[in-house]
Write a structure and sequence with these properties.
With about 650 residues, the protein is an alpha/beta fold. It has an eight-stranded mixed beta sheet with strand order 12-11-8-6-7-14-15-23, with helices on both faces. A seven-stranded mixed beta sheet has the order 5-4-17-16-18-19-20, with helices on both faces. It has a four-stranded antiparallel beta sheet with strand order 21-22-24-25. Strand 14 and strand 15 form a beta hairpin. Helix 4 packs across helix 11. It starts with a helix and ends with a helix. The relative contact order is 0.11. The mean pLDDT is about 95. 5'-O-[(S)-ethoxy(hydroxy)phosphoryl]adenosine binds next to helix 12, strand 19, strand 20, strand 24 and strand 25.
Length: about 650
Amino acid sequence: MSESAQRQGDAFENLLHEERRFPPSEEFAAQALAQPSLYEEARSRGTEFWADQARACLSWETDFTQTLDWSEAPFAKWFVGGKLNAAYNALDRHVEEGRGDRMAIHFEGEPGDTRSYTYAELTESVKKAANAFESLGLQKGDRVAVYLPMIPEAVITMLACARIGAVHSVVFGGFSADALRSRIDDAEAKLVVTADGTYRRGKPSALKPAVDAALEKEGSTITNVVVVRRNNEPVEWTEGRDVWWDDVVDSASSEHTAVAHDSEHPLFILYTSGTTGKPKGILHTTGGFLTQTAFTHKYTFDLRPETDVFWCTADIGWVTGHSYVAYAPLINGATQLMYEGTPDTPHQGRWWELIEKYKVSILYTAPTAIRTFMKWGRDIPKKFDLSSIRVLGSVGEPINPEAWMWYREIIGGGKAPIVDTWWQTETGAHMISPMPGVTRTKPGSAQVAVPGIAVDVVDEMGQSVPNGSGGYLVVREPWPSMLRGIWGDPERFKQTYWSRFDDMYFAGDGAKKDEDGDIWLLGRVDDVMNVSGHRLSTTEIESALVSHPSVAEAAVVGAKDETTGEAVVAFVILRGSAKDDDDIVTTLRNHVGKEIGPIAKPRNILVVPELPKTRSGKIMRRLLKDVAEGREVGDATTLADNTVMQQIAASLRK
Ligand code: WTA
């Protein structure tokens, strides 16, 4: 195991002595959708378990003839020969089957404006958008960049693309113009769908200028920009390219037939950070993705679509917002809440107020949010009626036991089961998670593989580790919602995920099995950081820093942070002419913001005279991490120049 994994392992050692156990209540267990028999069924049916789920969760226009074709591994084909339309499954069929009046989305804007869509209304809106996009020349297979805030049009756009067979590539609204452009270029997108802006912390915040800046440089593949009117701030306009959503969508016909696409037809690309500077376009296809997201949404959250109100707080810019906002809840015919803004506007009780108002019964959020609420104090949620809550979910990073307990006691009233769901952009859907009516939960552990999924923890050699030991998290068998590749780069796909261990998917996470065989996630073992549940690559931020003329060299590490889990800390060596002062730090932080986006701005930038390197020139990030976390610096004997750490310490004392 690598040194960093070893250290993480040590840090989490105390977790394994966590002895609190929370079995589901008898009532919950008795009525739960997932019963112990679901695990038995998955075991006995093997791959055919997923065929059963695909037919139970989805309506296929043409049934599939083969469940899995793994003959060209690691390139999988699931539900071969099947044809279906994602938007039809999310919308039309509910209307056809008499569920048209059921609420699909309650939307609440940050300023307090509200909108709601029944399944019939949402279907009509998606049909109109599909017609509008087609009238702009969009065809099956074309790529669409989506750069939108958390407003219903984001979901409408994604489903309208899926309906046509166009491939959406959502770019988080917090990413910069440069980041947007590189994603547009990589996917060769034809259309951008954006908004004039959104609201953030009570103020209008613009989005369109970033799109304009992204398209400024010649040679983009974009033919049109569709602009949703959200905050009515003035925008610059490029005639012939820019069109208002109101103009093209509102006037479009609400008749649109959803044509069935192949089960393996691309559904979307979502860029995520890897260990190199260039983000990877993770590709997901239709049948498998929808099957596993719908299946997990139903069983992990014990979903009752007739009565539950589901709220996943993730932005659609991340995979969680794809799987558990745009797709699964609608495939399952659920009612969900969508909220545009920040949790502290206009007051720190906004989320709890929303839960009380909409009677949210299933809340799915990230540990970083929970830790923020803990800091704000329990008195705030205590002011609201949260009794509607019956299941709580966590995602994005390991949840520390204190946050888990707080979540359970303060938000879940001491009784709602917590499901800590481990998964990735690449896996498409939950892979490790308790089942709320079955699993005796342990604070801080995701525990067990989802029925039908084969995860394991292995050592350097790929051997399964015994209970009580740690290693690397792998997936041993293909799964329906697995990524089908990296857009335009099949070699990188093989290299990144399938070369570390033969025939196994390497997730990039370290993990331990406790004495019961339950899995505890220990964080990334590669150069990927996890800041507030958002994935950032150390290399990508280093590249951004050295692209600034004042920077000669840069090294970035993720340092432990009480609220955000990890924080970005950068060490830079300046070029001879550059001055080491507060200005340079501000300049460099802003530069990273411009290159990647505000979320990637380092918390600290430390100007140093040297970086610690091995004789082969590899930066020893582990030592920098010690500095960043204020620890005594570890073993530095393999450094080419072992005075470097003293030089760094001396320069930081200055
Ligand atoms: C981390 C987010 C511990 C993990 C869905 C993974 C988690 C990365 C958990 C993927 C969890 C996600 N416990 N760690 N429950 N969920 N992670 O692609 O390191 O944004 O590899 O997908 O987040 O991040 P991504």
